[in-house]
Amino acid sequence: MTPVPKFSNAVISLRPFTPDDTPALHSYLNHPDLAGRRYIHWDFSQDLPLPPKQVSSLIDKWNEAEEGVTFAVTRQADGALLGHCSSSWGWDPHMPDCSVVVAPGHQRQGVATQALSLLLDYLFDFTIAHNVSLGIMEWNQPALDFAKKIGFTRVGLLRRESFYGGKFCDEVILDLLRPEWKERRHAA
Amino acid sequence: MPLDGNKVRLREVRESDLPTLLALRNDLETQGWPYALPTDYTLRTYQKQYEEDSFSFDRRRARFVIETLDTGEVAGNITYYSYRPRHSVTFGIAIAKQFWSAGLAYDAQETLLHFLFEELGVRVVRLWTTGSNEKAIRLAKRSGFKVAFRLREAVIRRGRLADNVSMDMLREEYYALHPELEDHLPPL
Questions:
Q1: pLDDT tens, position by position, for chain A (188 residues)?
Q2: Parallel, antiparallel or unpaired: strands B88-95 and B124-130
Q3: Are B138 and B165 a contacting pair, CB within 8 Å?
Q4: Closest Cα of chain A to B61: distance in Å?
Q5: CB contact under 8 A, B35 and A163
Q6: Which DSSP symbol is given to B32?
Q7: What is the pTM of this model?
Q8: Which residues of chain A make contact with B34, given a CB cutoff of 8 A?
């Protein structure tokens, strides 16, 4: 059988955003729990309230990107929007980055693990990625625990990456190499 | 007031510099940026880029020619980019081989750092190099940079995988190394 990329499992599905997603995306991006960790294009604020027009142009930006991909993470059962996940490789497919965001209310149900696993499977099985990296703000302990569980290794700190909560904050940089991912998948 | 160091002056690019800058770009030993390969740039493309440069007060990047103070020769260039005003900036240097080991890169680096911290008021300065480029790492450490993180096996250099190394220096680290200067900006 010809191998094809798998963008869904029994529970979730990854698909491109459409203009119809604007209200749901607008709603969760503006949730206070996601302030500072929206993982959206740097042209848009990580913490200011986003008007619907900006959310709509964010969707356009995601869909126009040629050297990367952003998916809507949806629930198979009813199509509900659960979050978004991205990877961008710029000019170098050897070293893409990645991110995953789950809307408050859908967190701690395994959505991020499933979404990131589908994305990593795609990157390692259908692109020549060797090093996939991830940046997480130092104060986001649940995300740091999550990245470790997935198999990422902490490789250092991007110091003073953001100013947040009255002080400069560092971003923890993590990466995952192809052999490490293969080994983990084999073990699973 | 030009940006003068002890051995070099950092000045604007002039049309007569273009052949020298082109030679730097087209030499595998002096351009350390895989994105810039292959080494087949032409004088025509450089001239076109030079002519299309338009006036702006809102610039997030700059390129200076490194001129020796004693003979006025063009020894290389130093650039900064990814400038987030008053927050962070990234820089890079290239020195023509005949000027290596004369302390010019260090002097150019110190001269630019003085400008970045004193005039732009940034809180952190960053640079990228590869793990195999020990000379560049040594040069950065000499001015006080520390390794921030290493993306493992993320770049290809001389047929091998090498780490993509990010180095950084915080504002207070710079002033601690320069007792002749006083940081008058209140800490954030």
A1: 789 999 999 999 999 999 999 999 999 999 999 999 999 988 899 999 999 999 999 999 999 998 999 999 999 999 999 999 999 999 999 999 999 999 999 999 999 999 999 999 999 999 999 999 999 999 999 999 999 999 999 999 999 999 999 999 999 999 999 999 999 988 88
A2: parallel
A3: no
A4: 17
A5: no
A6: -
A7: 0.94
A8: 92
